[in-house]
Amino acid sequence: MQIRTHVGLSLDGFAAFADGLPAWDAVPTFGEGSHGIDEVTEQCPGLVIGRTSFDQGWEHWVSHWPYDGRKVFVLTTRPLPSGTEQYGVEAVADPADLRRQVESAGLAGDVQVLGGPSTIRTLLDVGEIDLLGVCILPVLLGTGVPLFAIEPVGFSAERWAASPGRPELPAMLPLESQWLFADGSVLLVYRTS
Ligand SMILES: NC(=O)c1ccc[n+]([C@@H]2O[C@H](COP(=O)([O-])OP(=O)(O)OC[C@H]3O[C@@H](n4cnc5c(N)ncnc54)[C@H](OP(=O)(O)O)[C@@H]3O)[C@@H](O)[C@H]2O)c1
Question: 143 CB under 6 A from ligand 1?
């Protein structure tokens, strides 16, 4: 069992528009099963969603559940809304406990982390993501919800002068697979460990 992401990301690093609309919606070619989503769905009987993203969808999903046949886990510190029990939705309060909970559910396959960004970052931090799949969408949003916490710095002549040289390099992640789509989007899947 592998825990993997399949997040749609604008070329400038945003997972959602400033108003919260997912970045996927920036491309008119996005639709049911597009951009490798059918393949991920087929391989992932489990799904993990952050509470913010879950609440965004729940109002609609309560009457039109889109995840029939899949086990949904919600990362949250709060009780789930009533009605979620009919779909077997399970809360995960401790991100480090996700794998154990998934294994107890006895799923035959992988688990897709739908997002949002803070859920992906949290799970990466505790080493719970095996494959980091990012679908780069050929759009520049300029602003929005970034996938990674971006802390920009401007060039400083003082810092440059004081720099000891090349910093310790981060580990390079092995590229597991790549997929170029007709609309210019590119899916990159990296193994994190
Ligand atoms: N581009 C894409 O593929 C994609 C996919 C999905 C979502 N999105 C977008 O992402 C945005 C929402 O993302 P987000 O990052 O703000 O929220 P999120 O990841 O969906 O949910 C955040 C919530 O998850 C829970 N959580 C996070 N870390 C936790 C931890 N360490 N322990 C326990 N619970 C934890 C918390 O819930 P509690 O408050 O209950 O503690 C937190 O408020 C939306 O705009 C959505 O459209 C984009």
Answer: no
